[in-house]
Specification:
Strand content: 5-15%
Structural class: alpha+beta
Order of helices and strands: HHEHHEEH
Number of helices: 5
Largest sheet: 3 strands, antiparallel
Distance between the termini: 27 Å
Strand order of the largest sheet: 1-3-2
Low-confidence stretches: none
Length: 102
């Protein structure tokens, strides 16, 4: 089953720009400037989305001079993926279970 933290991660990933950012970070570690170029988002908007992703535990930062680099935390996505796989397996078995109406 999904724990209480995962619904927050799912909600965070539901935003199209954050989903795009996660996909970009799945390929390489990027700084804010790269993410602005790749997404076309304004820097302040992007910074707000990065804060949400950090607070959800999906990305971590790496300071490099005056730049901040972001990298994805794959273990969070792997844990979520495993929980979805368990949920799908449970649903396969539940197809045969039918509760009678009163």
């Amino acid at each position: 089953m999904l724990t209480s933290a995962e619904p927050d991660v799912i909600r965070v990933l539901g935003d199209p720009l954050r989903w795009q950012i996660v996909n970009l970070l799945a390929r390489e570690t990027l700084c804010t400037t790269h993410l602005v170029e790749e997404t076309g988002a304004k820097q302040t908007n992007l910074s707000n989305h990065m804060k949400v992703l950090r607070e959800a535990g999906l990305v971590e930062t790496e300071p490099c001079g005056r730049f901040t680099y972001y990298k994805l935390k794959p273990e969070v996505l792997a844990r979520l993926s495993g929980q979805f796989a368990q949920l799908a397996e449970s649903a396969r078995g539940a197809a045969e279970n039918k509760r009678a109406c009163p």
